[in-house]
Amino acid sequence: MTAGPNPAPFFIVGIARSGTTLLRVMLDAHPDISIGPETNVLHHWFDGVDSSSLDRWSETANGHDDLVLEMFERIHVDYMTERGKQRWGDKTPQYWKLIPRILGTWPDARFIYCIRDGRDVVCSMRDRWGWRVHYTSRLWSNGVSDALDIVDEHPDSVYVVRYEELVRNPADAVRGVLDFIGEPWDDSVLEPGQASHADFESDSSAATQPVFTSSIGRWREDLGPIDSRVANYFMKDTLGRAGYTV
Q1: How many domains in the chain?
Q2: Does 179 fall in a domain?
Q3: Average pLDDT of 58-76?
Q4: 3 lies in a domain?
Q5: What are the CA-CA distances from residue 190 to residues 176, 211, 228 (Å)?
Q6: Which of 2, 111, 134, 144 is paired with 99 by a 20 to 30 Å CA distance?
Q7: pLDDT in tens, 99-152
Q8: Which residues contact 164 (CB under 8 A, 6 or more apart)?
Q9: How far apart are CA 199 and CA 196, in angstroms?
């Protein structure tokens, strides 16, 4: 299946609390780009459906992946059309796990993988959900390590954006993303609060507040000495691989 007359889809993915929402509202502010709320459906199909059971129904059961993605595409296209836009994208962070499967149906799909210093992610997850440092440290390390393996396997399909670059130099960071997905620059991406983001998460401030850098390196003050040692213990190898100083 292809996207028909529509350009190839793109997906914003990454470990939670890594800047995916911020990037979503910035790109959604572009006059040609539509990115709706998180869909959170594809992993239920790809990971939850027992293909061996389907095989008993039909010899063409493995083609059902295409049907699921066709429905998924239709939802995005309808939403995009209602908003008078021309290109759709999806922001569901955990879809990084599905990159190989999605490429099997959309070979031209593009993925923007957002990454952030894991120690700052730990602080954000603790504030947001109350998760413990040892759990989130392992979650980040294991997830990012697996994701970087996928990135290495699909270098032409995945573009990496660092949270730190997105907030320090938003124009350069977003320009790189737009070049990667083949869309022209528009100044509106730097003022997402001025755009209408239909059905945006009501509890998020990413669409209304200016971009700020105060969360970069927050772990140095927010994590105590014991929690810092715990985080660095579990994250050391992956932090180094991801380009962060331990």
Answers
A1: 1
A2: yes
A3: 76
A4: no
A5: 13, 9, 34
A6: 134
A7: 998 998 889 999 999 999 999 999 999 999 999 999 999 999 999 999 999 999
A8: 116, 117, 216
A9: 9
Largest CA distance in the chain: 58
Residue 61: pLDDT over 60: no
Average pLDDT over residues 56-65: 60
- 110 forms beta bridges with 10
Asked if residues 231 and 140 have their Cβ atoms less than 8 Å apart, the reply is: no
CATH code at 144?
Answer: 3.40.50.300
Cα 228 to its chain centre, rounded Å, is 26
Please check whether residue 73 is in contact with residue 67, taking contact to mean a CB–CB distance below 8 angstroms. Answer: no
- Alpha carbons 179 and 218: distance in angstroms, whole number: 31
Asked, for residue 193, whether it belongs to a domain, the answer is yes
Contact between residue 108 and residue 6 where contact means Cβ atoms under 8 Å apart: no
DSSP of 56-117: TT-TTGGGHHHHHHHHHHHHHHHHHHHTT-SEEEEE-GGGGGGHHHHHHH-TT-EEEEEE--
DSSP string, 191-234: -GGGS--TT--TT--TTTSPP--TTTTTHHHHS-HHHHHHHHHH
* Helical pair 118-129 and 133-153, crossing angle rounded to 10 deg: 130
Q: Which residue has the tokens 């040692």?
A: 229
C-alpha pair distances (Å), 108 with each of 12, 156, 181, 235: 15, 10, 10, 33
d(CA 141, CA 136): 8
H or E element, residue 14: strand 10-14
161-180 pLDDT, tens digit each: 999 999 999 999 999 999 99
Q: Is 119 exposed, middle or buried (0-12, 13-18, 19+ CB in 10 A)?
A: buried
- 231, 133 Cβ separation under 8 angstroms: yes
